[in-house]
User: What shape does this take?
Amino acid sequence: MSQEQYIVRGESNLGVGKVCLQVFEGIAYAGVYKIDGVNLDSSSSFPISGKSPIIAKINDLGKIVLNVDITIDYGLNVASTSQLLQTTITDKIKEMLGLDDCVVNIYIKAINF
Assistant: This one.
């Protein structure tokens, strides 16, 4: 089974730079755990294709799109926490891979009381 890859550096005399989509998912996992009161949605945490709480895809425009299913603690501001998580993930992707044009969609699946 082949893994879908994103080209981070085009053909050169050194070769091509490609990154598997699972790398983007791993970076997003790390970003989620940096923010207090935010957890991955455990109802979708089984490693079944298409059922992971974080799914990376390449859209029709060639951009990386990350869909992140989370739960959030009661009392946290949903809008600002979602924005903080998006910024944290995109900053880490830029830092580690040099990409600044990815999309991070946050889906809040539950509030933890």
Observations:
- The domain at 21-112 is CATH 3.30.300.30 (GMP Synthetase; Chain A, domain 3).
